[in-house]
Structures are given as C-alpha cells and as structure tokens.
Amino acid sequence: MRLLLVEDEINIARPLIRALEAQGHLVQHGPDLTTARALLLESEPDLMLLDVRLPESEDGGFILAREARKAGYSGPILFMTARDALEDRVMGLDEGGDDYVVKPFDLPELLARVRALLRRVHEVRTSVIQRGGLEMDLAKRSVRWQGTLVELSSREYALLERFMMSPSRAYTPNELVDLVWGDEASDAGVVKVYVHHLRSKLAPQVVKTIPGGYRLGLEEV
C-alpha cells in the first residue's frame, strides 16, 4: 500500500519508515506542510500518518487533513502527536481523522493501528480483481495467472496493482516512477525493466506498450 508520512522529527520518521517498508508498504515522507501538500497532490496515498505540529503551523496536521477531506480524499488518516488534551483529540477526529495516537507511542501498537485502518481500505475495495486470465487479491496481496499462483516482488506487485486499479488509464514511465518508486528511483528506465519482469512471469499481453507509455493489456471479465 502507498502511505504518506508527515513528520518533521527525523528520529521518529526514520525508524517508522523502515518498519512500514518492511511490511511491504511504499512510504512517502513529508517533513513539513508544504512538502506534504505537494506529495498529496502528486500521489494517491492509501493512508496518511500525520504529525500535528509542523514547522509552518502548530495545527499543520489538522490543516492538511481538513484540506485533504475537502479535496475528496477518502482514505484513512491517523494523527501522531504529543498533544494529548481531550479538545485536541476531538479536533483531530472532527477534522477528518480516523485514529489518534499520542507520542511517545510504542511502534508495535502504531503498526497494529495502521494494519487495522488498512483493513478497512481492503474491505471498501473489491478484494479480488479479475482481468482476462489475471486475478489479483488485494487483501492477500496475491496474483494468479490462468489459475496458477505467481510470486511477484513488492515492486512488481505495486506496478501491476497500479495497472489493475485503473485498467483504462495510460501511464507515462515518469508517472509510474513517481507512483510506484517515489524518491527511490529517478530513472524511468526502471519501469521498462519491471514491465519485462511482469510479462515474463505472467504473459506478454498483460502490459501493453502504447505511444508514450504503458497500460493494462487485459479486458475486464
């Protein structure tokens, strides 16, 4: 899943990013409100983890949540903050938050809360998507081609998920780099490599090359 972490304290952000990535998530990190706004616009996070006090504002996380909800963001929002007063918790939930964790927090508890929120995302989405001979189970993160289970790396899965979730959309290589790799890759050539992996493991027709980019090459069942 794609997560947006907004946290200005690097000693909190760094281990949290490592832990979330170890669970297979792609994490984008915004250390301030300005960066977070830009990341929210360019990406489509499945969940946001927001600190409240940010360099630009004592209520930066609340402001970002309010703006995101107003713009139509429907994914879960989890606040992480040292502000533990009742009025702050109420404000967080009223601004569109789904959960509220007070710092300092235990990492295992925070990860459990993230899993619980993401389960709701899975429940909202159709769990299994089928296109042609391809079946993707979003809850189990598994893929079958012509009924046979196929093992994909986390990046291969993320790339295929992007195509499966928007089957009629064409992506440029640079768009796919931003959506699947984030800051971890800058060379669009990596997309060509992973498209080759998907075609080799599944079938050549799974990903279609079009002028300027790629799209899913399978029809809905």
UniProtKB/TrEMBL annotation:
Domain OmpR/PhoB-type, first and last residues per copy: 126-218
Keywords assigned by UniProt, alphabetized: DNA-binding, Phosphoprotein, Transcription, Transcription regulation, Two-component regulatory system
Keyword match Transcription: yes
InterPro entries, sorted: CheY-like_superfamily, OmpR/PhoB-type_DNA-bd, Sig_transdc_resp-reg_receiver, WalR-like, WH-like_DNA-bd_sf
GO CC terms of this entry: cytosol; protein-DNA complex
DNA-binding region: 126-218
Segments forming domain Response regulatory: 2-118
A molecular-function term among this protein's GO annotations: phosphorelay response regulator activity
GO BP term (any one): regulation of DNA-templated transcription
4-aspartylphosphate carried by residues: D51
PROSITE patterns named among the record's database cross-references: OMPR_PHOB, RESPONSE_REGULATORY
SUPFAM superfamilies: CheY-like
Gene3D superfamilies named in the record: 3.40.50.2300, 6.10.250.690, Winged helix-like DNA-binding domain superfamily/Winged helix DNA-binding domain
Keyword check for Phosphoprotein: yes
Protein's name according to its UniProt entry: DNA-binding response regulator
Taxonomic classification: Bacteria, Thermotogati, Deinococcota, Deinococci, Deinococcales
